[in-house]
Design a protein that fits this description.
single chain, alpha+beta, 15% strand, globular
C-alpha cells in the first residue's frame, strides 16, 4: 500500500476526465516498462531516453512556434490555466530565466497507485516520466531541478527550470 499522499482538491467533472486521460498515459508507461523488463531490457535506460526525445521534440516545437527560449513564454504555452487546475499548480516564480512551479496533485502517480505499485516503483516511473520535462527544458536552454516530488513522498512536485 502506497504511503504517498496524492489526492486532488478540485474534483470538477471535466478536470476528472482530463486526469483520467493522463492516468491512461501513465498506465502505458508502467506496462511498457514491465514488458521490457520481462525481456531483459533496462526500462530506466530505454524508457528515459524515449521520453526525453519526446520532451526535446515538444520543447523544440514550443521554441519554434514562439520564437523564443524565454521561460515566461514556456509558462504561457505549457502551463496554462487549465493545466494549473488539473495538476493543482502554483506558479512560484516566472522570469525569462527561471520558472518555478509547485504541483500539488499528479494524475500519473495516482494511476500507479491504482495499479498497486510500490512507492519505489512509482518513484522510478516518475523519474522516467520527468525526462520529458528535462527534454523540454533542454530545448529551452535550461536545466530542470526537482527538489521535491510527490512520487518520493513530498507534499508537492517542485519543478524548477533554471538557466545557468
Amino acid at each position: 500500500m502506497s504511503k504517498i499522499v496524492n489526492e486532488p482538491k478540485n474534483t470538477f467533472p471535466l478536470f476528472v476526465k482530463v486526469r483520467e486521460q493522463l492516468e491512461h498515459r501513465a498506465l502505458w508507461l508502467s506496462l511498457l516498462a514491465e514488458e521490457a523488463e520481462k525481456r531483459g531490457l533496462d526500462a530506466d535506460d530505454f524508457a528515459a531516453a524515449a521520453v526525453k526525445r519526446c520532451g526535446l521534440s515538444q520543447g523544440a516545437d514550443i521554441v519554434k512556434k514562439s520564437g523564443t527560449k524565454s521561460l515566461k513564454r514556456l509558462r504561457k504555452v505549457l502551463f496554462t490555466k487549465n493545466a494549473q487546475i488539473v495538476f493543482e499548480m502554483n506558479v512560484v516564480e516566472c522570469t525569462d530565466d527561471v520558472l518555478s512551479i509547485d504541483f500539488h496533485y499528479c494524475p500519473l502517480v495516482k494511476a500507479w497507485q491504482k495499479q498497486g505499485l510500490s512507492d519505489e516503483r512509482i518513484a522510478q516511473l516518475c523519474d522516467i516520466a520527468m525526462c520529458g520535462d528535462r527534454g523540454i527544458g533542454e530545448a529551452h536552454g535550461v536545466e530542470l531541478d526537482l527538489p521535491k516530488t510527490i512520487a518520493r513522498g513530498d507534499d508537492c512536485c517542485a519543478i524548477r527550470y533554471v538557466r545557468r
